[in-house]
Each structure stands twice: as C-alpha cells, then as structure tokens.
Design brief:
Blueprint (H helix, E strand, L loop, with lengths): L2 E2 L6 E2 L3 E2 L2 E2 L1 E2 L12 H11 L1
Antiparallel strand pairs: 1-2, 1-5, 3-4
Length: 48
C-alpha cells in the first residue's frame, strides 16, 4: 500500500518515516448509507 508523509509530501511504503506516521493515500471505503447526507442537503439549501 502506498502511503504519504504529511510533513514532506513524499510517498513511501513505510508506516513511519523519521518518527512521523504516514497516512494512507487511498480514499475511504464507499458506504451507501450516508449518515451526513441530510445535513449536507440542508446546508446546500441554506446557501442557495
């Protein structure tokens, strides 16, 4: 799995680089039941 060092922006396969934890570059898994959909729709309606 490819990971990214948030401090330097470099990509690596290591879990930590120079004591800094790396983060996953992959998006979160898709989940059809969207818990935030209602909130997002209300916010969108308020701004239009």
């Amino acid at each position: 799995m490819i990971r990214k060092n948030p401090d330097t922006g470099q990509y690596t396969v290591k879990d930590a680089v120079d004591g800094t934890e790396t983060v996953s570059t992959h998006p979160p898994k898709f989940s059809y039941p969207d818990d935030m959909a209602e909130y997002r729709r209300r916010t969108r309606e308020d701004t239009e």
